[in-house]
Amino acid sequence: MLSQAKQCQNCKKDFTVESEDFKFYEKIKVPPPTFCPECRLTRRFCWRNERSLYKRTCDLCQKRMISIYDTGVSFPVYCTECWKGDSWDPLEYAQDYNPKQPFFEQWKELFLKVPRQALVQIGDCLDTEYTNLVKDVKDVFLAYSVINSEDVFYSKNIDRSKIVFDSYNTVESELIYENMGGVKNYNCQYAYWSSSCIDCNFTLDCGNCSDCFGCVNLRNKRYCIWNEQYTREEYFEKLKKLNLGSYRFKEETLNKFWGFSLQLPRKYSKITNCTNVTGDELRNCKNTFFAFNAYDLEDTKFVHRCLKTKNSMDICHMDVGELIYEHASGGSGQSSNIKFIINGGLAMSEVEYSDLCQSSSNIFGCIGLKSKQYCILNKQYKKESFDKLRIQIIADMEKNPYIDKKGNVYKYGEFFPFEFSPFGYNETLINDLYPLSEKEIIEKGYNWKEKIESKYNITKKAEDLPDDIKDVDDSILNEVLECTITKKPFKITSFELQFYRRMNIPIPRVHQDERYKRRLALRNPLMLWHRKCMKDGCQNGFETSYAPERPEIVYCERCYNQEVY
Question: Which of 145, 107, 110, 149 is nearest to 126 (CA)?
Fold first, then answer.
C-alpha cells in the first residue's frame, strides 16, 4: 500500500502512514493508527509514573512502604514481597466477557480490582525501597529505570554501572558524577555524551580520552585543558590550581564550559555504528527510524529507551523482543508478538491489552497473570474457546467502540485511553518531555494530580553550607537542607557524603528533582527537523534533534569528522 495522509483524531494534526508501516501492521494484524506518533507516545507515557512516590500501607500484609500509587486508587496495592508471593491469585478477579458492553469499559472494571505492585522491581533487587522501574540492582536510591547496576543515586536510565550519582543515560560506567549519554567511562565528572573516558572533568562529545578538563570534541587525547595540549607534568600542575571541591568554582566552570562548547561544531545527531537510522542517542542500530536513547535495534520505528529489539513499532522501555507494538513500560524481555502492553514482563508471546503479566502466552485483556495461557479478562479458557472469543471481542470492538470524554473513538488497534491511567499527567514521564500547566492538562483531557509535599522542618539553608567539600563535617547528615531554587527540603546520606569527599565534589545546593530538571534541559527534544550542514560550502541535509533556532553550530557527519579527527 502507498503512503497515506491521515488526521490525528486527538490533536487534529496531519500525519503520514508510510508504505513500510502498512506492511508491519499487516504482519502483526492490526489496523493503522488513528493517533499521530506524538499523541501515541503521549498516550503510552501517561501510564508511566517514575518519580512520584508516596508513603502508604501494603493492603495485604499491612506494613508501611513506598509506592507509585497514592491512597486514592481503587485497586489494592501490595508490597513487592506480597505481590510476588503465592498468597493471592489473579484468576480470582476473573470476569465474563459481555458483548453488549465496550471492551475497554470491561477492562477498566478489572483494572480497578486487581492488586498492583507498589514499585515495579524485576529480578533480584536489594536495598531499593526508594526506587522504581529497576531490574537486578543493589543499593539504588531515588533512581529510576536502572538495570544491572549498584550504588546508583539520583539518576535515570543507568545500565550495568556502579557508583553513579546525578546522571542520565549512562552505560557500563563507574565512579560517575553528573554524566549524560556516557558509555564506558571511569572516574568522570560533568561529562556529557562522552565515552571511553577516564579521569575527565567537564567534557562534551569526547572519546577515548583521559586526564582532560574542559574539553569538547576530542578523540584519543590525554592531558588537555580547554582543548589545549599539555605535558603530563604541566597538566597536573595546572590541575592543582583548580579548586574542584568548591561549589563556586564548579558553577563558574560550568558556565564557562557551556559557553566554550558553543564555539565548536556539534554533530547533527549522536549516532554511533548505525546504518540507515534517524533519531538521537543511538548505537548499533539498523533500519531504525525516529528512535531515541536506544541501542542494538533492527527494523524498528518510533522508539524510546529500548535495546535489542527487532521488527517493532511504537515501543518504549523494551528489552530484547520481536514483533512488539504499542509497548509502554516494564521491559518485556524475551517476548514476541505482544501488543498494547502497559507494564510488560519477561517471556510473553501472543499477548494483547494487558498489564503486569509475565511468562504467559495467548492472553487478552489480562492483569497480573504469571505463567498462564488462554485467558481473557483474567478468566481461564480452553484453546478453542479462547480463539473464538478473541475473534468475537475484536469484532465487537469495531462495532461497539469505547468513546472517551474528548470524543476519541477506541476500536481494536488503539492503546488504552489516557483517562484510564491512575496517574496525573503531571506525575508521569510525559510531563518531563512536554510539561504543561494544570489548566493546559485539564483542557487537553488528561488527568491532573494535586501533589502533596511531605512536611519537614528545615534546619539549614543550602546556600549557607561551606563552599568547599573539605570544610563540610559529618554534622550535615543531621541537617534538613533547603533548596536554593525550589525551597524544597532534602538531605545528604552517609554514602553520598563519602562519595563527595572521595571525588572532591561540593555538596549540591538544589533539590534532587531540580537537578534532574537541569539535566533534562540539556537534552534535545524527541523531535526531528530537516536541516542543512552549517559548514561553509556544504549542502548536505539531515534530520536532527537540533531545532533551527538553537545557537549550536550543527555539522553533517562528514564535516564533523573532518573537524575532530
Answer: 149
Q: What is the pLDDT of residue 67?
A: 97
CA distance 220 to 176: 20
Output the nine-digit C-alpha cell for 213: 578538563
Least confident span in 106-115, 186-195, 438-447: 438-447
Distance CA 465, CA 481 (A): 9
At residue 484, the 3 state secondary structure works out as coil
pLDDT of residue 36: 98
Q: Can you tell me the distance from the alpha carbon of 476 to that of 474, in angstroms, rounded to the nearest whole number?
A: 5
The residue type found at 236 is F
Res 534: pLDDT: 98
Band the pLDDT of 445: cuts 50, 70, 90: confident
User: What is the gyration radius of the CA atoms in the chain, in angstroms?
Assistant: 25
At how many degrees (to 10) do helices 383-399 and 103-111 cross?
120
Cell of 492: 545528604
Run of H or E including 316: strand 298-316
Whether the Cβ atoms of residue 10 and residue 36 lie closer than 8 Å to each other? yes
Q: Taking a C-beta distance cutoff of 8 angstroms, is the pair 390, 110 a contact?
A: no
User: Could you tell me whether strands 489-490 and 481-482 are parallel, antiparallel, or unpaired per DSSP bridges?
Assistant: antiparallel
Is the pLDDT at 363 greater than 90? The verdict is yes
Cα Dmax for the chain: 81
Helix H or strand E encompassing 38: helix 37-45
Which set of grid coordinates corresponds to residue 151?
550504588
List the grid coordinates of 282: 543511538
CA geometry: angle 408, 422, 448, nearest 5 deg: 75
In angstroms, rounded to a whole number, what is the distance separating the alpha carbons of residues 476 and 372? Answer: 52
Model confidence pLDDT, tens digit, residues 66-84: 999 999 999 999 999 999 9
Cβ contact 323:336 at 8 Å: yes
pTM above 0.90, yes or no: yes
- Those residues whose C-beta lies under 8 Å from the C-beta of residue 319, and which sit 6 or more positions away, are 147, 306, 307, 308, 309, 331, 332, 333
Q: Give Cβ neighbours of residue 10 (< 8 Å, ≥ 6 apart).
A: 35, 36, 39, 43, 406, 408
- Name the E strands within 142-208: 144-147, 150-153, 156-159, 162-165, 168-171, 174-183, 186-192, 201-204
Query: What is the spatial distance between Cα 431 and Cα 394, in angstroms, rounded to a whole number?
Result: 32
Tell me, what amino acid is at 496?
A: E
Phi, psi of 309 (to 5 degrees): -125, 145
- Phi and psi (nearest 5°) for 420? -80, -20
Distances (CA, A) of 263 to 249, 259, 521, 553, 560: 22, 7, 20, 8, 14
- Counting beta carbons within 10 angstroms of the beta carbon of residue 301, is it exposed (0 to 12), middle (13 to 18) or buried (19 or more)? buried
